[in-house]
Amino acid sequence: MDQSLQRIKQESKVECETQRELWDGNLRGTPQTLPGGTSFATPRRVKSFCPGPCTIAILTACSLFGSGKIDGAQIDDVLADMTRVSPQELELSLSKQQPQQLQLIAQRLEAASPGSGSAEKIGVFFKAWARVDATSAFAGAIHLKNASLRTKALASVTETTGAAGAKPLVASLSALPTEVLPMSQRGFLISTALVIWSEADPGAAAAYLESISPQGPDYYMAWSQIARRWALKDPPAALRWAEARGGNERGHIVLFGVISGWWEKEPGSAEAYVFARLDSFEGQRMLAALVKDMFDASPEKAVRWVTQLTNGQARQNSCMAVGVLWANNDPKAACAWALSLPADLRSRVLNAAMGAWTTNDPQSAGQWLTELEGEGRDVAVDAYCAATVMINPATAMQWADTIADAPLRQRVMNRVASLWMAQDPDAAVAWIQSGGFPASEQAALMSVRSPR
Hints:
Layout: H1 3-19, E1 25-27, E2 44-46, H2 53-66, H3 72-79, H4 87-95, H5 99-111, H6 118-142, H7 147-160, H8 163-175, H9 183-198, H10 202-211, H11 220-233, H12 235-243, H13 249-265, H14 267-275, H15 281-297, H16 299-307, H17 312-329, H18 331-339, H19 343-360, H20 362-371, H21 377-388, H22 393-400, H23 406-423, H24 425-433, H25 439-446
Antiparallel strand pairs: 1-2
Helix pairs in contact: 1-2, 2-3, 2-4, 2-5, 4-6, 5-6, 6-7, 7-9, 8-9, 9-10, 9-11, 10-11, 11-12, 11-13, 12-13, 13-14, 13-15, 15-16, 15-17, 16-17, 17-18, 17-19, 18-19, 19-20, 19-21, 20-21, 21-22, 21-23, 22-23, 23-24, 23-25
């Protein structure tokens, strides 16, 4: 940093000593008119603290830049420190400036070279600005010329706006022309704002979502999360809304969201609702969604719960779902649990867990098999072969040949050979012929050859 900015830091210390009492108390946004005639400024309360050197430099440099006393190159040096200060300090620094000054600073950040971390700084800057005055921060964001940085700024404002300001924010985002907010980004930002709105008024957020007839996967999150938040407040009302949506995919998303929130609020009632519908395909899907929520909240409780289900199909499907979820976090524990299950569950659950494990890390799954001993090893190898045959059939065949139980070994090898023949018959035949198998076993494997 050059000498002029060092001088700015020194001079600012004196100035800040006389203003320090103004850095406490209420910070209130200055309402401005946005697209749709709305304003969503919210008051902020910030605790007292002593500003550090970087904060002092940013505060003073912003003031001098806004008044034309220093040039862009000089403030660029100061803004390089922006990501090193706390959000609270940056918020207080920006609260001392007028919206016009903040817009000039945003333009300087936008003009910085891509390698300078401009996108990160834009995000940090607009989050701090939105905490001071969300309305003027939104107006500043839409005036950025760079499309990606403009979207970044709008996302930062959206994430920072509280539930009380989310309704006008949704209206403002919806009113933006496509050249300002492209359709590719619009759905995600509006969905995010709608979910925030639903924290305060889920019914109104749901009604607005229906009124705009949204299309595309960006809105799936909004349907699900609004339903979930509504069920956390009023399960019967949320359930009525979900059941009125019908049996299409959107209706299922809403219903699963309701089950999720309802289970958090009243687990017994939500479980009873799902259990009463287990004979239907929709009920089985609800159960899968419920198991995921339960596992995310407490894996131990989910494991106990699914193994105690009395409905056989529900028990099997739920245990398989837990096996996959658990394998994504702790595959050794998931597979060990699967091996401990009764015979009617063991193979299917182990196949599910091993499938998830080999998809994520086939090497460590194979290593686990080399260390495994006892009765469950053959079942585990069978599951591993089923998971790897489409990726690496030669490896699957090698593992299948290590199964101790002769009838099971033959079944697994036949299955692998059949699938391999369908993929690459020449490679499969060459491997079988060079594998050193007895003539009878080689003939049996060759007999499953698929027609070309």
